[in-house]
Amino acid sequence: MTIVVSTAGAGPDLALLHGWGLGAGVWNGVAERLAGAFRVHRISLPGYDGTADDGGDFAQTAAAVADALPAGATLVGWSLGGMLALAAAAARPGRFARLALVGSTPKFVQAGDWPCAQPPENHAAFTRAVAETAEATLTRFVMLFNQGDDKARAVVRALTPLFAAGLPPAPVLAKGLAWLRDVDLRPALPGIATPTLVMHGDRDPLMPFAAGEWLAANLSDVRLERFPGNAHAPFLADPERFVRALNDFCHDPA
Predict the structure, then answer these.
(1) Which listed residue (13, 18, 44, 79) is catalytic?
(2) Residue of 221, 235, 69 lying closest to 146 (CA atoms)
(3) How far apart, in Å, are the Cα atoms of 252 and each of 57, 195, 218?
(4) How confident is the model at residue 254 (pLDDT cuts 50, 70, 90)?
(5) Of 18, 123, 200, 232, catalytic
(6) Which domains are seen in the chain, by residue range?
(7) When comparing pLDDT for 43 and 158, which is higher?
(8) From CA 13, how far away is CA 35, in angstroms rounded?
(9) In the annotation, is 79 catalytic?
(10) 55-90: pLDDT as tens digits
(11) 41 classed as catalytic
């Protein structure tokens, strides 16, 4: 499996992994800020940003992400990218110096023992809508996951131009939605010893703040950074605080 990575800057290695539906361009603003202190690697998952999709499953993709990055890097994953980051750390113990999980969760869909997630019927309805009208649904998706954010309009303005570059192919979107429906990383957490920063907006309507709190309570070496007034994309709503928190975490000798 080939993972495409673009690199800029100099310093400790730091990799940025996007989420579902939106490629590496989501990091444009913060990547430029971070490149002043890090060697920044922006990952494009297979099928995104004009890359080919080789049909790999979730576990294969997570392992390929780990293998594509320098040993000792910090891996930052947003949303579905955070789930892949957790799986990559579990698959390759000791590979990463640190993890940062942004608006992420170990399990996206609710279960009897997992209420801090999306109802299955919501996920099913969204999957049908994407299959019928992908572009219109993704536009609504961006507005949806920013509901309640103090900077919602600014975040939507930042993300909307990314659609001009074209959407990932329909099978890639469908595969990602299937991962969100099926993947449960809760059993893997006890095996992850990598120091982890959980960054989560306290108004996230997509992956509730309670999911971030659960991660913070169940990872062995973790700190929780709450972003008040922010929804699902705190790195866009409050980039200065995001970069500062990440910088402090990566340069903390403890």
Answers:
(1) 79
(2) 235
(3) 35, 11, 21
(4) low
(5) 232
(6) 4-250 (3.40.50.1820)
(7) 43
(8) 10
(9) yes
(10) 899 999 999 999 999 999 999 999 999 999 999 999
(11) no
